[in-house]
Amino acid sequence: MDNEEGRFNFAIGAIIENSEGEILLIKRSPDNSPGNIWDVVGGGIQQFENPFDALTREIREETGIEEFEIIKMLGVFHNYEIDGFQERIWVTYWCKTNESSVRLSHEHVEYCWAKPEKALEISSHKDITINIIRFIEEKQKLGYSIG
Amino acid sequence: MYVENANFMVAVTAIIENDVGEILLIKRRPEAEFPNCWEDVGGRLKQSESPEEGLRREIKEETGIVDIEIVKPLTVFHIFRNNIKKKENELIGISYWCKTRTSKVILSNEHTDYQWLTPEDAIKVTDHPALMKYLRIQMAEKQQIEKVIFENTKGDIIHG
After folding, report:
1. Do A78 and B51 touch (CB under 8 A)?
2. Which domains does chain B carry?
């Protein structure tokens, strides 16, 4: 055993798909850092919190969506320590819901249900774009056409 | 942001598949915690190391395998090392599906034996409940089953 292991902030997020095949993007408020970008739903796992409980909590807090199911894991992302923020690992899952009404928290200012191709157009952040691409690839592997 | 102070050890583990679809299991030392348990390859990330770098390092250290294609992450798991529910012991892990074209394995001194098994046989051989879950997810992903079943993470054991 070595003692070189690091300590990391850990977050969990979701590409949430509705029954129309649209995915949910939410726009970060201008005073959030980074601000004003279209994001996926999610946030930090709290100390002693199970990751799947954290996912449920974040989805409820940020969107008001109560019922969803987890389909598959999509990706793992890594952000180095910047501006005093701790080094962070974050992971994303593809989730499905039958709910389409969204109630935002104060952390976000706008939401949009978009077809995947449209979501790719409005995403301006590399990691978010990669998540949308992974979602499209997973759908295509299952034989769905996208568009 | 209200969770800045939360921090965790992070582990990365691999379901490694060879070109005939068999999965690599390695056996823990008799002196280790969970002695002689058949487990998957993996270990903890170092500070500033990306999960994929850490995964490749651990695979190389524990098996000698460098020819690795990381197919995709399968799921995450959550445990307390030594079963002690303290912040210092809290660990979140990521289980990946990997492929290799080699079957040649060079073990480190952390393990005493290895075997390549079909996923069905690997599930029978291991007494590691979390590993059984990752194997089932890998089989579901490979068969492109629409919805992977994520059971709860209780019963996960450590990788050290």
Report:
1. yes
2. 9-159 (3.90.79.10)
Any CB–CB contact under 8 A between B45 and chain A?
A: yes
Kindly report, residue by residue over A16-34, the tens digit of the pLDDT: 999 999 999 999 999 887 8
Q: Min CA distance, A46 vs chain B (Å)? A: 6
Confidence of residue B128 (pLDDT cuts 50, 70, 90): confident
Structural domain boundaries enclosing A97: 7-141
Question: Which residue type occupies A40?
Answer: V
**A39 falls within a domain:** yes
| Residue B60: strand pairing partners | none
A45 to B3: CB separation less than 8 angstroms, yes or no: yes
Q: Is residue A91 part of a domain?
A: yes
Query: Across the interface, do B74 and A73 touch by the CB < 8 Å criterion?
Result: yes
CATH label of the domain that carries residue A119: 3.90.79.10
Alpha helices in B4-90 (DSSP H): 51-63
- A83-104 in b/e form (b: 16+ CB < 10 A) is eeebbbbbbbbbbbbeeeebeb
Instruction: Indicate the number of domains in chain A.
Output: 1
Q: Chain A residue closest to B142 (CA)?
A: A141
ipTM score for this prediction: 0.92
